[in-house]
């Protein structure tokens, strides 16, 4: 196993991606969450080719137009595919290791940013903002969703769109009879806390949100977006297009 490269702050996902890029093809990330048992995420999943991608992701790529901002770009699989199709793509990730991997793989324009980074709004406009792999989750919480929908208007060119995926995880709260059981006075059931670990490196806990379609529609319409659901599957995942009115 390659020795993880030292970074100023813990970056387990980035270190796993770097390890895979360096030839450690069995690199895996341990995923701890507040709603499920520990899961294992193979680093290889971030390097998938077009035909290894879920159909929903392939649909999203087909729907891209103009200059594209790929948020939470990971190892750059979507950015690389769009580059091959002739798109101008800016790939952004908060992981230093992921940024290094994308640069090594040939993504032409890569930046290290949090999605709320003010530097993203300095003059540049995009026709498409792409947020795949349950990418809405990057906003963290319902408050973050409201904040991001306002922030994105500064990033989008006239007529621009957000293409994003998310899931409804209410099924995790079903009892034996299929009724939903959760605290109506508590946080929204789709707000999850995660911790990632690779080798001996554990990252800080972070928030991630899975938004049910009706709630996302409510928030997006209140923020001034037209909402179009492009695709849904039998696992309660969906692809949505948000366009500024």
From TrEMBL:
Question: Which SUPFAM superfamilies does this chain map to?
Answer: S-adenosyl-L-methionine-dependent methyltransferases (SSF53335)
Q: Which Gene3D superfamilies match?
A: Vaccinia Virus protein VP39
Q: Which GO terms describe its molecular function?
A: methyltransferase activity
Output the Pfam families linked to this UniProt entry.
Methyltransf_23
The Gene Ontology biological process terms listed for this entry are: methylation
This protein's species is: Hymenobacter luteus
Q: Where is the signal peptide?
A: none
Q: Which UniProt keywords apply?
A: Methyltransferase, Transferase
Q: Does the keyword tRNA processing apply?
A: no
**Name the record gives this protein:** SAM-dependent methyltransferase
């Amino acid at each position: 196993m390659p020795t993880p490269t030292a970074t100023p702050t813990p970056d387990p996902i980035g270190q796993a991606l770097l390890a895979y890029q360096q030839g450690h093809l069995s690199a895996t990330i341990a995923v701890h969450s507040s709603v499920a048992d520990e899961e294992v995420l193979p680093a290889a999943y971030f390097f998938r080719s077009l035909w290894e991608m879920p159909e929903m992701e392939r649909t999203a790529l087909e729907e891209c137009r103009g200059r594209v901002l790929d948020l939470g770009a990971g190892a750059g699989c979507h950015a690389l595919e769009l580059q091959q199709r002739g798109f101008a793509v800016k790939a952004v990730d908060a992981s230093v290791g992921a940024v290094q991997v994308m640069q090594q793989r040939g993504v032409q324009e890569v930046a290290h940013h949090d999605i709320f980074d003010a530097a993203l709004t300095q003059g540049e406009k995009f026709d498409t903002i792409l947020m795949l792999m349950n990418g809405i989750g990057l906003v963290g919480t319902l408050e973050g969703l409201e904040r991001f929908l306002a922030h994105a208007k500064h990033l989008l060119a006239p007529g621009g769109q957000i293409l994003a995926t998310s899931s409804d995880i209410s099924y995790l709260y079903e009892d034996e009879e299929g009724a939903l059981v959760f605290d109506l006075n508590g946080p929204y059931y789709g707000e999850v806390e995660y911790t990632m670990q690779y080798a001996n490196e554990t990252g800080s806990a972070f928030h991630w949100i899975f938004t049910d379609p009706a709630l996302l529609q409510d928030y997006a319409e209140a923020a001034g977006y037209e909402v179009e659901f492009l695709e849904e599957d039998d696992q309660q995942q969906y692809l949505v297009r948000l366009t500024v009115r």
